Amino acid sequence: MSNQYNGFNPNFPRVTQPQLTPAQQATQLGQGGGFMQPSGGFLPPGQPGVSPAAPSPGAFLEQSYVENILRANRGKIATVYMTFTGKTQEQVFVGYIIGAGRDHIALKDVNSNKTYILLQVYLDYITFDEQITYPFPL
């Protein structure tokens, strides 16, 4: 017997989520066990009025500091030290910073035409041989 719905059962009851305004979503998310912000920051539950400070003009909207420091230093040469699962020795990558995301670093090798996407979960530390831009107040 052929099913024109490819496994979809039209008689199965559907669960729909109500459409909420952004204010209602924030109120609902603030209740319960806390929530993860898109930036990866955590706001504890049960503390009304606790919210991240509004960014100043020109400031990065994300709060993942390694990511923002790397983004602010695009084009500079960095030495990235990483230790991968199951390995005991560090692996070193030297290259120009192309970009960075919450979970990765994009690096262009200085000695070849290779581009690396390195997962930050394996990151030990990063060094620069020049002055860096540090986008946060000290």
Please provide a written account of the structure:
The structure is a single chain. The chain has 2 helices and 7 strands, in the order αββαβββββ. With 138 residues, it is α+β, with helices and mostly antiparallel strands. The protein has a domain at 65-128: SH3 type barrels (Roll). The strands form 2 sheets. It has a 5-stranded antiparallel sheet with strand order 6-5-4-3-7. Strands 1-2 form a two-stranded antiparallel ribbon. A hairpin with an 8-residue loop joins strand 3 (77-82) and strand 4 (91-100). The longest helix is centred in the first third of the chain and has 9 residues, at 22-30. It starts with 21 loop residues before the first helix and ends in a 10-residue tail after the last strand. The model is unreliable at 3-8 and 29-57 (pLDDT under 50).
